[in-house]
Each structure stands twice: as C-alpha cells, then as structure tokens.
Amino acid sequence: MSTPAVIDTQSPPARRVHYLNARYGVASWLLTVDHKRIAILYLIGVTFFFAIGGIYAALIRLELLTPPGDVFLSETYNKLFTGHGVMMVFFFMIPGIPGVLGNFLIPLMIGAKDVAFPRLNLLSWYLFLIGGLTALWAVVHGGVDTGWTFYTPYSTVYSNGWVVVTAVGIFIAGFSSILTGLNFLVTLHTMRAPGMTWMRMPLFCWGMYATAIIQILGTPVVAITLLLVAAERLFHLGIFDPAQGGDPVLFQHLFWFYSHPAVYIMVLPAMAVISELVTAFSRKPIFGYRFIAASSVAIAVLSFLVWGHHMFVSGQSVYAGLVFSILSFMVAIPSAIKVFNWTATLYKGSVSYQTPLLYALGFIGLFTFGGLTGLMLATLGLDIHVTDTYFIVAHFHYIMVGGTIMGYLGGLHYWWPKISGKLYPEYWSRVSAWVIFIGFNLTFFPQFILGYLGMPRRYHAYPAEFQVLNVMSTAGASILGIGYLIPLVYFFWSMRYGKDASDNPWGATGLEWQTPSPPPTENFPVTPQVTGKPYDYLTAQEEVAVG
Amino acid sequence: MELFPQQASSFAPHVDALYGFLIAVTAFFSLLIGTLVVSFAIRYRRRSPGEIPPVVHESGLLELVWTVIPLGLVLIMFFWGAAVYFRITRPPTGAIEIYVTGKQWMWKIQHGDGHREMNELHVPVGQPVRLTMASEDVIHSFFVPAFRFKRDVVPGRFSIAWFEATKPGRYHLFCAEYCGTRHSGMIGWVYAMKPADYQAWLSGGAAGESLAAAGAKRFQEQACNTCHAEQAGARGPSLVGLFGKTVHLQGGQTVVADEAYLRESITNPQARLVEGYPPIMPTFQGLISEEGLLQLIAYIKSLSPSPAAGAAPPAPSTERKPAKP
C-alpha cells in the first residue's frame, strides 16, 4: 500500500507488477486490505453461496416436476425452499454487486487509492463469510423450514428448525452490509479525485451511493427484528406470539421495513451497472445523467415507505393499504425514468453487440417486465388474488434474477478484463447470455400464469392441472442452470489461457480504463485529474487524435 | 391449457377486468421498450471500430413526458384498484354467517345451524357469505382462486371477510400462507350450490345444535352467566342487544361492540373496560378454544334482535348501556 511501485506501461507486460502478482501466498489474500483483492474474496464467497442456492433451486424444480410430493418429504421440501431463499437473498444478492463490483470499482472510478477504511473493508468480508457459513451450517445441517421470511408465530413457536442459528448468521452478515455501506458512503464523500465533482461521478457510483444509504439505515432494523425472533424463541417473551399477547403482524411490519428496501439493495447496484454498460457499448454520454442519478436516490428514499404492500391481505387497515398502494406506485416512476433514459442512450449511438451489452439489453427487457408486473401487485384489488401465489414468485425472480443477476453478470463480463487482465472467449460468452435469457424466461414466465390460476407458493404438492406449466418451468430452470455454468467455465479458463487484455479493451471512458489491466496495487501511478463530465466520448476521441 | 381461472364469484369479473387493463399496459410498455431497444441496436449498430456517434442533447421535455405519462397511468391503476379493494373488503349486511377455524393443517367450518364441515365449505350462489375466521396456531390464509378471494387468518384475532359465489361448481380452497410441514395439504373444496340444492344440503345430515345454542352452553359451562346476568345489580353488564351497539368505556372513549371487541373482552377483559364496572373479570385466554370463542360470539350475536348480524352496526345507540365488565 505505502510502497509506491513504479509502473512503466511501455515495458513488456511479462513482469509488470499489479495487484494480483504484487504478493503471493494465502496470507497475502486473507490479510489483504487492497479493495481489489477484497473484491476477489467476495467474488469467491458469493459464487460459493450462489452455487449452494442454485443447488437448492434445482432440487425444488425437480420436486415440482410432478404434482404429488414424491421426491422429497414435506419437511425436506420446506427446508429446500428456505435454504434457497436464505442463501440467495442474504449471501448472494445483497452482498453480490456491492461486494464484488462495488469494492473493485468505486476507488478506481473516483481516482482513489483505496476505500476510506481498508481494514474495515476486510472485516466486512470476514463478517459476511462467518455469517454465511453460520447460516449455511444451520440450513444444511440443522435445517430450517420457516421460509426466508421467518413469519411469526410459526418461526418463534412452532418451527422445529434451527431458526436461531440462521438468524444469528444473517445478523452477523448484516453488519458486513452496514460496514460496506458506510465505507462506500465515506469513500464517495471524501476520496474523489481532484475535479471529480458529484455531477462528474460515474452513475455506477451514484447507484452504489443510494444502495449504501439503504444498507446503513435499513439493516439495523432487520438485525433487531431477528434478535426479537431469537429472544421469543429462546425466552418466550411474547412479542409476536398471540398466545402471550404478542402481535404476529408486528413482525411483518418490522421484517418488511428492511426487506422491501433490501430489494433495492439488490437491484440498485444492477441498475448502476447497466448505466455504465449502455453508455460504453453505444459510445455516447448517457441520456439524462441527472435524472438517472436522482432516480437512484429517489428509489432509495421511497423504498422505505412501501413495506405495507406485503400485507394487503393480512388484515391491516384499509386506509393503510391505500397509502402503501399509492407509495408503491410512486417507486415505479423513477424506475421508468431509468428505463426510458437507457433506451434513449442507444438512440443514434454506435451500438456494439458485445457480451456485456447483451446482458444489459436482457436486463432492460426483463426488468421492465418485472417492474410492470410489480404494478399489478401494488394494485390493491388485484394483489388480493395474486399475493402468496406463484405470481409473486415470478415477479420477484424477474427483478432479482432477470434484473440483479443479469446486471451482475453483465458487469462481471464488462470489467473482467480489468479484474483479471485477461479476455474471455467472446463466442461462448454470447452463447451463455442467450442461453440464460431463454432459460430464464422459460422458467419464470409460466409462473405468472400459474399464479393467476391460483397455485400458492411454497407448495410441496399441487393439483394435477398445474403440471404442464410446472414442467415448462423446470425445463427452463435446467437451461438456466447450464447458462450459469458456461461463464464459470470460461472465466476460469481465461485466467490461464485467455489473451491478455489491453488497458481499455472496450474503448470506454472512465478512470478505471485509464489504468493498466490489471491495475497496480495503488490503482493510479499519479492521482488523476478530472476535467470534464463522464461518458464524454467526443472529447476522449479528440484527445486520442491529438495525443 | 387454461390461462385464467374460472370466474365464480361477484368479485371475479371486477378483478379480471382490472387484470386485463394491467396486462394491456404491461404488454404495451414491454413491446414499446423491447421494440425500441432492438430497433435502435440494429439501426445504430457500430459500423467501424473507431466510430464515435454524435452527441444527442438531453431533453427536459422528454424527461417530463416519460415522467407524467407513467404517473397518470399508475394513478388510474391506484384508483381502480382501490375501488375493487373496497368492494372486496366491505361485507354487505344480510350475509350468511359462517365461522372458519384454521389449524395445522385443516380447515374447520361451522355453519350457523350447527352443520360442521372439514376442508369443505358448502355455500349457495347468489347470496353473500360472511366469514369470521380464526386460527388456532399460526397464520393461515383462506384462498379460493375461482372467487379471487384471499384473506389471512391471523392467530389472536378474527379475520372478517366475505364473498358471493355466482356460478355453481366445485372450487379449490387453498391455504396461501406458509404454515408448516403439511402446508400444501391444507386444501379443500368449496361447493357453490343453487339455492334449492343448498337448502336440500342444509336439511340433510345431522345438523346438531345450532352454533348459538352451543355458545349458550359454553356460556353456562364457563359460568359467564353468574356475572353477565339479566338482573339489576349484576356484577357484569348485560349482553342482551349488545352486538353492534356503541359501548362507552372508562376514560370516556367508545367502541362498537363488534366481533373483535367481544373477542378482546373475553381474552383480555381489562384492555377496554365498560364504564361503571370494576375490573374483576378474569382472562379466558387459553381456556376457550378458537371454535368455542366463535360459538360464544355467535351466541352473543343471537342476543341482538337485528335482522342479520352483519358488520354494519345498527343505528348507533346513544343510551349508556353498560356492556362489559
């Protein structure tokens, strides 16, 4: 960190010192405070938990191939969907893009040497890992059958699973999320390079800023809620248990006060990635920079005011329902603004269909559809019918898988040359983008129809008339699974056999492309000076022509 | 393969019309965005590696347009959705009263005349049915897709809901809120019958004593009658004519004596005391089953000579009639 390595980009790349080869050995990774290495640690961690969550998903779809519960026992099935939800939500979706791409890119994009608190950053990763492994131990070894939502009084009084251990795991990982958010917030406030004003900041940073606000303000609430669940389970406090005068719906209010904003912890970073991809692959300044930046913050603020839309049939007051309905609709506006501005950015651009753009276009389509079906859930009279059915399952998978994972993979493909210094095979990466898009739609589109027909979620067995759609969904899931394996293979392959990446393989703007691939440990040999707006391809072109 | 469930209740056409509008909006914007993205991507594809496109200037007007149009559309959705929601959440008067108890993992149904059913519910078409639902353990949710009807059944309180079947037939009844191991087995059937068939069903089979009569028996068993007696100087307020009346509480507040208040007065009597009575009633929390509570409520309702014990309270009473210990 403090030893300024001299970077000579003119010499042959064989022995160039960068963050990956600056030091060797396990300790150099496990004790690193380099934000780029920590990003790699997160990449390993979230990929591991994603694989676990994916195995759970495969087993769920296997069971649902036929109407009767014939592959697993009901107890087992309930543990499977709980494990899937817990692993995917808390240990892949929430830490995913901030942990991997946020850590790697924020300092690079703002021209800083590292995040504001490098040691805290490493602590975040350890908390994430300890929390994740604790929860994994609980859901695999002990088994938890409450669903990832832990609704009371089932979770506090009736469930026999390892609810407390799982809650402890999520509680620990929650601090990781808070510390990461805090770190990013301070970094963005205090460590921007000279000339990098707020309105010159890449939109990825704006998205991460909005995400950090939610992480810091929302996560403590779920931490408290889970503590209350654990306290009621262990000491029978009677907070949520109606037999002791508690209120089970109070839990839902507390849980969704975090967990709805958490949806935006998952999707705002993906939106942030898409803003970068769309500009880079149409070589144009983003259309409506200020509107996209402001919409991220608007989404973060509104996200705290919509939790009650999860409770339209729980018996909450009709008037509360009205307020939560209209506020939920309001979130659609900044989301729509983003989609329209991304689309307008392509207009008169120079559009290159490289893999990251394919993911970005996939995101725009799937997120648009997922968001529009979200309007159906905000519509009071309609939500009564579709809530707690497969319609909900389809909707949030369009947002989380169609949105967040498409954004994550798009970002990973875009910045992989910077992260690894290597190029992956373009042909296979395009194939995988298509396979994922097709497999995804085949998996989840039929679930909208299933939900409107009335198939409830979390059903181990279901009536025979729902089978055709379930078979389609399982077939799609198989394709989707293959789609996720292909990148895993070629990313590994590229690390050894891939061609060396140039500093700026896409011809993109942004400070991260003005430092070598992979970057040196201190990111920039000389602190960069920022003189203009981001995504200024015209000026960048002139400078290249002049220089 | 069917894409939509049957329409078998008075709600269904309203919900489906709303759904149709939202499908139209969803399809329009998905196709619009999809078409624009694909056509821009093709029309403006990169033709040479070094190509730099012209700058397209931002347009405040365009931002305004695509803010205002979605805003207008979501406001239509909001008001329309709210109108349907009000229809679904407000039970009409004169409905048939049916009492539902959910427990892991079954639905127990009690009809006013004493008929009991398990995982089956028989109702007539063309007549509103009002459900008073309770849970003995965890949260369940009473869901009849063909009726577009769903309501959580939360332990510790009554969930009041209603529907009106319009088409005779047999329809799925599901538990929609995850409730434990055999959640997917907590299913049954709703039989919507022509009124004549329903009458025949009611008259067949042993109905046993009516729900109110069962409640009266419990009223004796639990010795409620020793205090809530029909005589001057009784230790507790009279319950005759209580249901639906406005009750004056200690501290000057008032409450309408609906199912929720009666339930609270049995399980947590000190919570809202009737003016003029001492706090002497013990709690019956845990001493009376959910089914027993429903029977007691049915009995107390039967003491009110209203034409039908609906949710809409009779004309608010201004007399200071004590109602509860």
Provide a descriptive summary of the structure in words.
- The complex is a heterodimer of chains A (547) and B (325).
- By secondary structure, chain A is mostly helical.
- Chain A has helices at residues 26-30, 35-63, 74-109, 118-142, 154-158, 163-190, 203-235, 248-282, 289-302, 318-346, 355-378, 380-386, 390-420, 426-453, 467-497, 537-546.
- Chain A has one domain (34-546): Cytochrome C Oxidase, Chain A, CATH 1.20.210.
- Chain A is 68% helix and 0% strand.
- Chain B has helices spanning 12-43, 60-89, 195-203, 211-221, 259-267, 290-302, and strands at residues 96-103, 106-111, 116-118, 120-124, 128-135, 140-144, 149-153, 159-164, 169-175, 188-193, 246-248, 254-256.
- The relative contact order of chain B is 0.13.
- Chain B is an alpha+beta fold and 325 residues long.
- Chains A and B meet through helix 3, helix 5, helix 8, helix 10 and helix 11 of A and helix 1, helix 2, strand 7 and strand 9 of B.
According to CATH, the homologous superfamily of the largest domain in chain B is Cupredoxins -  blue copper proteins
What's the total number of strands of chain A? 0
DSSP helical segment count of chain A = 16
Q: Give the strand content of chain B.
A: 15-25%
Q: H/E order of the elements of chain A? A: HHHHHHHHHHHHHHHH
- Termini separation of chain A comes to 31 Å
Helix percent of chain B reads 25-40%
Structural class of chain B: alpha+beta
Task: Kindly provide the name of the CATH class of the largest domain in chain B.
Answer: Mainly Beta
Q: Please, how many helices of chain B?
A: 6
Topology:
The complex is a heterodimer of chains A (547) and B (325).
Chain A: H1 26-30, H2 35-63, H3 74-109, H4 118-142, H5 154-158, H6 163-190, H7 203-235, H8 248-282, H9 289-302, H10 318-346, H11 355-378, H12 380-386, H13 390-420, H14 426-453, H15 467-497, H16 537-546
Chain B: H1 12-43, H2 60-89, E1 96-103, E2 106-111, E3 116-118, E4 120-124, E5 128-135, E6 140-144, E7 149-153, E8 159-164, E9 169-175, E10 188-193, H3 195-203, H4 211-221, E11 246-248, E12 254-256, H5 259-267, H6 290-302
Parallel strand pairs in B: 1-5, 4-10
Antiparallel strand pairs in B: 1-2, 2-3, 5-8, 6-7, 6-9, 9-10, 11-12
